[in-house]
Amino acid sequence: MSYSTADSFPTVTLDDVRGAQKMLAGVARVTPMEGSRHLSGLVGAPVHLKCENLQRTGSFKLRGAYVRIAGLLPEERAAGVVAASAGNHAQGVALASSLLGVHSTVFMPVGAPLPKVAATRDYGAEVRLHGQVVDDSLAAAKEYAAETGAVFIHPFDHPDIIAGQGTVGLEILEQCPEVRTIVVGIGGGGLAAGIAVAVKTLRPEVKVVGVQAAGAAAYPLSLAAGRPVTVENPATMADGIKVGRPGDVPFRIIEQYVDEVRTVSEDELSSALLLCLERAKMVVEPAGASPVAALLSRPETFEGPVVALLSGGNVDPLLMQRILRHGMAAAGRYLAVRLRLTDRPGALATLLGVLSVVDANVLDVSHVRTDPRLGLTEAEVELHLETKGPEHCAEVGAALRQAGYQVIG
């Protein structure tokens, strides 16, 4: 594709996104859109979920990767491609390369989740484990590209990538023509930029709202400064949007077209992931749940109908377990307490009886008898409880104190 330039950076047009849509016909799925009764009730208007978590490879990344690799010259294809990623981009590049008959090498951190490493290999890539974090893998991938002539496929900072991701925006307008607000997670910015170009060119009255994790929120700072600004040591469970610096190309597009960028907390991300699983029956990763987190945070500020984009569903099962427990705690449905009791036969059974009366479900019990902090006849018990919400948590605490237990945490 050929691209116009703005401020010395190439930009993307509606024609580019439409061209990408034609290229992706029969390759990327037109993912479904599902209504959410619960979120609609909170917002006071229809809310729909655009389910890119059901896309091939489990995320939107295939779209941009395929358009980028399909646009390579024959001699570039012959040299192969290289990428660095801990997950979704790796799988998108691997499958796109296989479909196009191009050899791909993907560098991943040594600690990358095993299911993602296995999936990337299964899609046909040669996987090389290097470094402890993605930045280490990125440096190795660029060095490999310089040594071998393989084409480096950037995850977001290229017009072809942005055009491919923008096809999600065209689908949203086709599936929900009455939409008034589109909410999308932002990491480096390729997805939000592509959607914004497509939507704002066709329907300038539709608001596009970006969402970042508060611990990795480079865009609010960058937009205020008028240039990409780096956030040192970004920290969030949402690794799909944990990017320290906006891409130069998507930044200029987002600066022009995206109406607002909001941030969400880790608690809000956990609660959103839990809601997607329980209410929408959708498995999503934390980054994919970020638009839902924004809706939960300030539902009254969104004009409906709203489309929230579930951008990916590739979550490591062990991480999912931790996040769900965190989400239950944030929603007041999980309670951890420590207390002291007299160490005598039947004491633990008596304690569990108190919890049974108030209908608290005991998930785990840890019993400590030998500790310098404890008296000769004392024992310390740590309980992990499943509860029914904040009011039930308060009821459990009151019942324990009324029964004479010393709650210490």
UniProtKB/TrEMBL annotation:
GO terms for molecular function: L-serine ammonia-lyase activity; pyridoxal phosphate binding; threonine deaminase activity. It comes from the Bacteria. InterPro entries: ACT_dom, ACT_ThrD-II-like, Ser/Thr_Dehydratase, Ser/Thr_deHydtase_PyrdxlP-BS, Thr_deHydtase_catblc, TrpB-like_PALP, TrpB-like_PALP_sf. It is an enzyme of class 4 (lyase). SUPFAM superfamilies: Tryptophan synthase beta subunit-like PLP-dependent enzymes. Residues 336-409 form the ACT domain. One of its GO terms (biological process) is isoleucine biosynthetic process. Its EC number is 4.3.1.19. Pathway: Amino-acid degradation; L-threonine degradation via propanoate pathway; propanoate from L-threonine: step 1/4. Keywords: Allosteric enzyme, Lyase, Pyridoxal phosphate. Pfam families: PALP. Its cofactor is pyridoxal 5'-phosphate. Belongs to the serine/threonine dehydratase family. In the native structure, TdcB is in a dimeric form, whereas in the TdcB-AMP complex, it exists in a tetrameric form (dimer of dimers). This is L-threonine dehydratase catabolic TdcB. It comes from Streptomyces jeddahensis. The gene is tdcB.
